[in-house]
Amino acid sequence: MRRLALLLLLALPALARDAAEYRAFWVDTFNSPFARREDVARIVDAALASNANAVFVQVRRRGDAWYLDAKEPLPEVSGFGEPDAQGRPTYDPLRELIAAAHAHRVEVHAFVIVGAIWRGERPPRDPAHVFLRHVWNPATNAPYTDDRQWATATNTGTRRFGNDWYLDLGHPEAAAYTVDVLAHLVKQYELDGIHLDRIRYPESPGANVGYNAVSLRRFHARYGGSGKPRPRDRQWSQWRRDQVTNFLRRLYISVKAVRPAVRVSAAVICYGPGPRAAGGFANTDAYSYVFQDWKSWSEEGLLDLLAPMDYKREHKKKEAAQFDDWSRFTAAVARDAGRISVIGIGSYLNSTRGTLAQIRRATGSGADGVLFFSMAAASKSTDFFALVRSRLFPVRVPTPENTAHDGHVMGFAADGASITIENLATHQLRIATADGSGFWGAVHLPPGPYRATTTGKASCFTITAGLASTAAACE
Hints:
The protein has helices at residues 2-10, 37-49, 93-102, 130-134, 172-188, 213-223, 234-258, 275-278, 285-288, 294-300, 317-337, 352-364, 375-379, 384-389; strands spanning 22-27, 54-60, 107-113, 116-119, 136-137, 142-143, 160-161, 164-166, 193-197, 263-268, 305-310, 340-341, 343-345, 369-373, 407-412, 418-423, 429-433, 439-445, 448-454, 457-463, 468-470, 472-473. The chain is an alpha/beta fold. It is globular, with a radius of gyration of 22 Å.
């Protein structure tokens, strides 16, 4: 079977060597060690062995930092950072990985988990961990019951989902904290991208999730009413989608303000049937079950790169059809918005031959390459790296169409305030809404002078191509 797969692969027509495609791996630190020099060398060697041009390396797992210049505690992993006799780390695996990968023209994207903040029953050891400051009260050995509580919950108060605890992005302080942590990461490291995982609400039967007290209070302040809305209430569902989207908008602009060239991407949900089979994206689990409206993220330009986790078993006819549905949809959505699409393939689910078939169909759908989950799984196969290597070696990667021609803006107003943004040259208007912290923003505005108005107050700014501006009082 392996020989047949490789013979089929080598028989494929050669592609132009200057074609722009991603060939990348997710490197999850649950299965790929990332603590010492030998770990960094192993990752780079595997990328080179497969002629990959990017690695998406997990550097935030559950509110921890797999890098030294961080705002969160280091991981509770023995030997992390090659500690000295006093236990102080002497080696920064992320900084060294960036240097080693860039020497071979391999991109490094920081893969970070957004929502899930802790796992299991044992609390973290470091009292500075966000879980102990804003989810679990060590003084009472129980969850916080006041506004310090940042975790999401069901309508009956359950805060743990499976083994995970999730921050609720409807709590303004939780969202602002997470943006601050990730913007600091981008500022301190010369990354090519930041890659967001679990940027959503957790799975819960009947979409019974999102009932953080602060978020719920804000919801009623905006729309009236009291009590706890039904899990499937349409307005409540849209509220939860908006909290995730508002977070992403703030993060996107904050990243561009620090390093404009860094690509913002997300591992987006592809559960079950694709949009065509489901009768539209609004009927998929991504949209209605975990409140991740990634179609609108692409349309607004809040992501530079879409990476659907299109993990399907090729030998199951139903799942193979789902793979095609999701990959075609993603490629079309990204293309229409001038974004990049890189199809996430669950190579751990398939034989070499099955993975080959999915590579061919993913790239044939119009996508800009493939991203394999995971490097650890690939390393267990004797021929996987040879399979990928015999494909095109991409000497350059795609670029979003409009990132070099426009800019972004951010400002602050009251929670829920509507802001009218006017281009003073063309008089075109755009409307923004302030989030729970009062942050508002707009992305991909043409260069030129602007005025933003809310409740009779005006602020002004000038958009410069490729940069993020801040609205200030008009002179």
